[in-house]
Amino acid sequence: MSQLIFKNYGRNYQLRIQDAEDLKNIQVLDEAHWAATSVPIDSLNCDYVFLSYVDTDRNGRIITNEVREAQTWLFRFLTNRSHLSAGTDVLDLNDIDTSHPEGQKLRKVAELILTNLNSPGAGKISLAHVRDVQSIMANATNNGDGIIPPEAASDPDLAQFITSVIETVGSVLDASGKAGIGQEQLKIFFHERSEERRVGKECRSRWSPYH
Length: 211
What we know:
With about 210 residues, this protein is of the alpha+beta class. The chain has helices spanning about 20-25, 50-55, 65-75, 100-115, 125-130, 135-140, 155-170, 185-205, and strands at about 5-10, 10-15, 40, 60-65, 90, 125, 170-175, 180.
């Protein structure tokens, strides 16, 4: 643990945080030395999505323990922390700690995102990349939303079946904005087909010469 250095900020002495070593010191900093022990999210001039992740209990406020937990999580996933003070939203994939399963999974997810954005092997990922959900989903064969467009089917017959369902009962948009079908469309389709067969059977029975 590095030495705690305090600086006068607005007539109050607060812990100086200039690099990763300084940030690590919040784990031992007494709460009496914090500028605040709790703060409403909507009073902070910061990215709301980021703040919502720090606010683990989802009560609209961030407390000191949540800041400490966020720092612990961050340091667990980074081997190279020198870029933390660079003020960038770009992450070098080589900085991810892959010595544990969670880090390995994070690295694979980052690589998958870059691949889906047509940048395989890029080596670096930005916040804009991660939040480009539309493009990520558009290039993912299986995006896990439960909606299957015809082009996601590798079997031509299955793709034709999906197209037939769409033409019969309509479609819904998947996460990438493509038209496809889900469980509800299949249920309606098979119900309508069942009704057609029932009506057809009744008609044949009614007009049968042996009736």
